[in-house]
Amino acid sequence: MTITPVENALTSARVANAIRHAIFMGQLTPGTKIAQDLLADQLGVSRMPIREALSQLAAEGLVTLEPRRGAWVAPLSLASLDESYALRGWLEPKAVELSVPLLTEDDLKRLRQHLGQLEWAESHQDGDRFVEANTAFHQCLRSRCPWPKLQGFVDRLWNGFPPLTPQFVTAQMAQDHAEHAQLLTAAEARDGLRAAATMAAHIQRSGHRAREHFQGLGWSLGPESGDTR
Predict the structure, then answer these.
(1) Cα within 13 Å of Cα(80), Cβ side
(2) Secondary structure of 144-185 in the HEC alphabet?
(3) Which of 49, 111, 122, 170 is 20 to 30 A from 131, comparing alpha carbons?
(4) In DSSP terms, which residues pair with 65 in a beta bridge?
(5) Which fold, 12-73?
(6) pLDDT digits (tens, 9 = 90+) for 77-119
(7) Can you tell me whether residue 62 is helix, strand or coil?
(8) Where is average pLDDT lowest: 5-14, 101-110, 141-150?
């Protein structure tokens, strides 16, 4: 198992991001026990952010924790991936539809800035910066949604698979950037229905590309049976 080191000052959220990346790149496979001491050494952090990160990943369904036994990569499957993208494809477009008519001029300015950051990251093939700008763009686009429960559901779905998609799907950044430009155009027109339809298509395409990636890593169609440890 090899994971790119991160600086000591990074928070548990960034540690969780590094572990997610290792899972999604096939460096940590489903059923693998996570060596927490080794992980802390590789990431250059103490055990505390490792424990916090693993708790977060367990809540997302990516990690299984057992008291006094340790942590394992959960028995992930294509079915769990499909579920995450299907739920996001149903819920996030609705949040966008409700949010877009209420966006302020400052919100639109931030969306343009995030789009510029996406363009920079694409031109420099910087996956980490692209993911950060992508997340910020989506959050800003639905920030005015007046339904807090819907916002909470979408926030939870954003943990796990979706944020890292451009990092592990080749040539996705250019397509993502083009679709974000379409979303910005709909937002500038305060056209919630057009923005929602564009978002639904965007999520569906991302889900298909992610499925191809994980199928290539050998993920099964359904949940693994039996004890993989």
Answers:
(1) 16
(2) CCCCHHHHHHHHHHHCCCHHHHHHHCCCHHHHHHHHHHHHHH
(3) 49
(4) 71
(5) Arc Repressor Mutant, subunit A (1.10.10)
(6) 888 889 989 999 999 999 999 999 999 999 999 999 999 998 9
(7) coil
(8) 5-14
| Tokens read off for 68 | 């006094």
For the 78-216 domain, the top CATH level (class) is mainly alpha
Residue type, 86: A
Give the helix/strand (H/E) hosting 201: helix 192-216
Looking at per-residue pLDDT, the higher value among 89 and 11 belongs to: 89
For 114-143, what is each residue's pLDDT tens digit?
A: 999 989 988 887 877 888 888 899 999 999
Q: Which residues contact 134 (CB under 8 A, 6 or more apart)?
A: 118, 163, 166, 176, 180
Q: Domain limits of the chain?
A: 12-73, 78-216
Query: What residue ranges in 17-125 does DSSP mark as E strands?
Result: 33-34, 63-66, 70-73
64 φ, ψ (degrees, to nearest 5) = -110, 125
